[in-house]
Amino acid sequence: MTMITINPATGQKMKTYEEMSYSQVEDILRQVNQVFESWRKTSFAERSAKMLKAAQILRDEKEEYAQLMTAEMGKPIQQSRGEIDKCAWGCEYYAKEAEKLLSDELVVTEAKKSFVTFQPLGVVLAIMPWNFPFWQVFRFAAPSLMAGNAAVLKHASNVPGCALAIEKIFIEAGFPENIFRTLLIQSSQVGRVIEHPVVKAVTLTGSTPAGQAVAAKAGSVLKKTVLELGGSDPYVILEDANLEEAVSTCVASRLINGGQSCISAKRFIVVEPVRKKFEELFVELMKQKRMGNPLEENVDLGPQARHDLRDSLHMQVQKSVEKGARLVLGGQIPDGDFGQGAYYPPTVLTDVKKGMPAYDEELFGPVAAIIPARDEEDAIKKANDTIFGLGAAVFTQNLRRAEEIAAKNLQAGCCFVNASVKSDPRLPFGGIKESGYGRELAEYGIKEFVNVKTVYIK
Q: How far is it between the farthest Cα atoms of the chain?
């Protein structure tokens, strides 16, 4: 069987890749596990030098990788370049910090000496999505490899070029040839890979149903999992917010990556005293954003990654309108200049209420849902009224009040004040509820896939 990449901006076929048979997959897994046995014994200094080299390759070849990313999944080229820069940052962070983060921790007991040490688990399987095809991979790979693990990647089937490019980066950086490998397989084969005895842990970024399936399979063979799943991030706008700054931040967050980000702003919950003004400013700014060829420098919004995803998003908009939401911008599949591309315009729905897809479901595209709230208490209640719990934000000029809301009231793994939710190598990232469990990045991320071992010396 084959994988065929399709440029979402044009609808044209680009390249064909041969899928791997399961016997080929088994051979790769055995090779990776064999290399792990020697890699685990390398020093942090040796690992760090190679990871810093990977960061340098990313920076030196940024344009090549950015062009590949934009061609395969459609994000604007300037955002693709930014993603490559972020990958390099992640590599540099773990190259410099891993040894300290995984240093032995002495614990005072009645023993002569007792301490906690952190040892690599082995081969980690990563199942990654298409929306950030480089960053999603590097944010698991950099800490995993620096911790002494090996890795295999099952990437989304529409970005195989990105998957193979990442494998090549690690080889060019001087890592052992089989310490990081890409598996060109369909999702139907993933269960067998999870069950394979050399695979010791699994990390997945994707949809909630995908997370449930992977967790069930991994649980059946008692293997550790980290899941970063969907999100329907609420941004709460209080009456004393700086509306111009809030709207600018909210629009940017809603449209980043074509709106195809788990942590992009999706539900805008606005208290009544400022709702009308917020809506006017929001719609006006959304109108100014330019949709077009993602290779052009001044384009804000490219196509959606696939036509079926665009069509599903449009259906969510239509159903929300049928249930009483008011469409104030966009909401129509474009034609004409956009040809066969999977484009969807900046869209705003208001008067959104519970029972509508725009309220209850994740809108994975450039569609904003404005939800009215009576007051702060009602806004927080509606923010938390979701099956998801990945990110959330609150906008107010009262920072003491905002800190209380972010730290204690909003139910999410990442809560930001007067800023859009984003991942940062220095901070743990992950969610609660149906947004998954476990953490990536920072100290918490690198310690997910290690054996936290107690040593007691009498």
A: 78
